[in-house]
Here is the input.
Amino acid sequence: MTTLAVDADAAHVLPITVDSRHYAADRALEPLRWVFRWGSLVMLVAMVSLPFIQVVAREVLGSPIVGAEELARFMLICTVFVALPYVVSAGANIRMEEFLGFLPARLVRGVQLVIAATAVSAFATAAVSSVVAIRSNLDNATPTLGIPYWIFLGAAFVGLTMTTVECGLQFVKALRRQPLYVTFPQEHEPEEELDLPDELRH
Here is the structure.
């Protein structure tokens, strides 16, 4: 599945996204992407469910769960970092690429290369910083449940490292004039027509 956009000069059509299985590099990363997507979904479900369970336990059963709020915060932190590579690979992060539409087509590729290179540098630096933070907090843990800080920071390291890889791949794609972002098979619309009532058909 390919998404298209017209450049500023309307001289040609530029593909923005392609199916995640289209290029060999994307196919190689697909198993890792699958782990990150489903891992972030599981953490998101846990993050949303824990406060609800705590409210029921406190207000209905009269027996609140110790540390539920702390665990929900832990899930929030992990969800952000684990979902980050998925967001970046799909181009769903805030990119402000609308400004590229005002540039001549010959300059767009150069700007994309600068953006991708800057992102690789920034996320790689953040990943290294998370390793330094892990080494400095090996003996620290949360006050209630005693969750080691290295687990929080480990999620940051894993997510930031994978995001660095995704940005590096986007840099290579920009060099090759390939679409930077991917869509995933689970996100595609069904090929067959849905059997909808006439009043719902457009």
Summary: Strands lie at 3-6, 13-19, 181-183. Residues 3-187 form one domain.
